[in-house]
Write a structure and sequence with these properties.
Helix content: 25-40%
Number of helices: 4
Shape: globular
Structural class: alpha+beta
Radius of gyration: 15 Å
Strand order of the largest sheet: 1-2-3-4-5
Strand content: 25-35%
Order of helices and strands: EHHEEEHEH
Largest sheet: 5 strands, mixed
Oligomer: single chain
Amino acid sequence: MSIRRATIDELDSLSELFDSYRVFYKQESNFEGAKSFLKERILNEDSVIFIAYDEDNPVGFVQLYPTFSSVSMKRSWVLNDLYVNASVRKKGFGEQLIQKAIEFAEETGAKGLSLETGQENVTAQRLYEKIGFKKESNYFYYFSL
């Protein structure tokens, strides 16, 4: 198992994983759209993406987006996307990707790393809590278009 930061050279492999991730979340497959979206993120440095490899095979990824805290005057990272191919789940790839994200947040002097998941995604919740994430209970989150 190895994990490395994605570059434009890995766009095709990453796009396949990203398309599978979107399908997992009930979106229609759109490889070209996924490729275009990720290419823009990488070239514009809008996000940081790490890819997990099982030998030479890409099997998962984590994508982080930056945000900032005005109060602490520090950057934070949002763990927005995490995906591991079904064929290698429960082999530690998800945990290693999250650990890499935490390590990256520490290396960049970030205030922290946040994430959200659906109430029904109990498997992910167990993993996050095992790693040390705490469920936020002090804030309400609102969303609008």
